[in-house]
Design brief:
The complex is a heterodimer. Chain A is mainly α. Helices cover 81% and strands 0% of the residues of chain A. Chain B has a three-stranded antiparallel beta sheet. The chains are: A mainly alpha, B mainly alpha.
Chain lengths: 156, 117
Amino acid sequence: MKKFLYRILVRSHPRRFREQFGDEMLSIFDEVAPESSTALIADGVSSLVRQRIVRSNLWKMACGAVVSACVICIWAIGIRYALEPSLELVMKQTMRLQWAPPGAAQRLDRDEFQREAAAAVAILAESRREDEHKRRQPLVPPRQIRSSTLPPAPRT
Amino acid sequence: MKDEIKAQLPLAPAALHILLALAAEDRHGYGILQEAFRQSQGHYKLGPGTLYDNLDKLMNRGLVAESARRTAKEDPRRRYYRLTEFGRRVLAADLDRLRAVVKTASPHLSEPEAKRT
């Protein structure tokens, strides 16, 4: 069982390392006393981690990923706090619309519509009244206007 | 050449033990483990993973090379390793460095004992 486990550990090493030293590692496992096999398995695990992560520069990629994740989190938190007032407003509006009793929003719209309609009718009536008032005023003949506005003719 | 040797120093403990094990004769992996254990009087026990990781690095740096020595009766999976001339110089330079460290440290470490007695 332990030999099977050690064989799997050796086979999990990077190909170049496994091809160069894998057989020798297995031959050493065969030679050592059975009581040392647990220590060899522990050594195999540490060797696997060393070869897969440290020697393959995977740790650099892992560090890069962690740093990138931290930067993105900080950025997101910054954006969230920068936009908090506007977000709060939007949330309140949404909550008000969502949690208002059924019909309340409709009643509110109808009242508003009636107010606006009344204002529009008043404006229309006012404009009609102005038009009628203009129509009743006597019109000034165009010639009269011209002669009065022209400068006096020079004397000869 | 001196700069190249200096660039290799100081040697890591595992690398030092491997080079010391190979200084006397060419050895296979298991032989290196046993010799390192013997030389350190049982204080330093290398595992195969650590051994071959360090051997790989030492071979890439030109301090150790694969040896042609094989015996017919032995396990065919075994490979022998030898110290290169450059590796021998690097080992000598590191031992000089360690001697200097011991020389510098000895008076400071022996003082309290001398005062007590």
